[in-house]
Amino acid sequence: MDQSIIDKQPYGRFHRKLFVLSSGGPFLDGYILSIIAVAMVGASDELRLTSFDEGLVGAAALVGVLVGGLVFGPVTDRVGRQLMYTIDLIALIVASALALVVTDAWQLIAVRFLAGIAIGADHPIATALLAEWLPSHRRGRTMGALVGTWFIGASVSYGVGYVFSVFAGPDAWRWVLASAAVPGIVFLLARIGTPESPRWLLRHNRRDDAREALKTAFGRYPSEEELNQLAETEPPQSARMRDLFTGGYLGRTLFAGGFWACQVAPAFAIWTFYPVVLGAYGFEQGDTALLWSLIVSLVTLAGCYPCLRWVDTLGRRPVLIWTFVAVAASMTVLGLFPGMAMGLAIVMFVVNALALGGGNTLQYIYPTELFPTHIRGTAMGVASSISRIGAAAGTYLLPIGLDHLGLGPTMLAGGAIALAGCLISVAWAPETKGLALHETAAVGPRPVAKATSGVR
């Protein structure tokens, strides 16, 4: 089939703007989920948190992401991407500001949970909207780069936390948590006026609205032939969550949620308690630990960039498998030799961070490619929710594991989870590079992409 009007478009100003706007969700995700590590010391002292309470505080936002994805993934498939694109940020801003009035542990847990719901809602909304506007030859690297903004958000949070800790002290932890409202407001205002996905509009028999959306994005109305060609790939169809668990989509749902969970379960546990974990290997505590956390976060971000090209040249499948291998190997070494010299520990943390960054680029690529438009938001929401089950469990169990099992066994457990993700990927990961979105989402044998489609 000939390329649609969307696939024929060069990657231009509209796509770059939409990428920046869509990056608000992952940026705030990384910021909010990482900033708790900065605020935990002050909150723990003032609210007298136990290790049990700290585990709940660390996991609350992740559980909220789970709920938000399950609830709002189907909603965005029913009411549209553009409307929910702004509403979820309003909820996130309010939840962040509520941190200023927290006076008890349960209130902090509740505020983190509400912020997580807003984040979970943005996963299916922003990723579905961006994927449905991208031409096939730039979809892999652009969706992968969206994950990279998570690490930018995390890095910024550590930098903000360091500034607060130096100039305001640990008593400023409420303002540290509330600071997420500032970028939230910026992204909210910038997102106003974003056009709806024409793919979604055609699925809902809104042909004239699809024509207007294409005019807003590309500066001209599509011809009838171009609109008909796009409409052929997006026949009207209602969204049903049960479609994710029937026929050929059940395996895809399990794969998308499974590999994602195996990536984030050990990663989020370490990211949430980086100052504690690094301190266990001999790194300095206090403000210096925040700088180490910032450095590791930047290294993780650096790991994303070579993989952004490799997913379109080498392919999605090998990038996913080999990054899992590197994560499992580095965590196994950290677990087998917890008393290692600091220099070797640094090397292992660098390998771990680079591999995590590279592998995480697939988190927004596979779930958006493997499902059709009418259930793409639902699929993304379900996959992110499955992943957060693992992330919440890992985050909750890490401080308990350090207290009761020790450093070595806790790191070995993380390596075992990464190995499980590698096995899942070997068994189920498909190759989708260079294919049009309706081709990657089709159940059955996939066409082979042209050799040049992944390197334009």
From TrEMBL:
Residues 18-433 form the Major facilitator superfamily (MFS) profile domain. Gene3D superfamilies: MFS general substrate transporter like domains (1.20.1250.20). It holds the Pfam family Sugar_tr. Keywords: Membrane, Transmembrane, Transmembrane helix, Transport. It is found in: Cell membrane. InterPro entries: MFS_dom, MFS_sugar_transport-like, MFS_trans_sf, Sugar_transporter_CS. The keyword Cell membrane does not apply. It is a multi-pass membrane protein. The chain crosses the membrane at residues 18-43, 55-76, 83-103, 109-131, 143-167, 173-193, 249-274, 289-308, 320-337, 343-366, 378-398, 410-429. Signal peptide: none annotated. The keyword Transmembrane helix applies. Its main location: membrane. This is MFS transporter. It comes from Streptomyces lanatus.
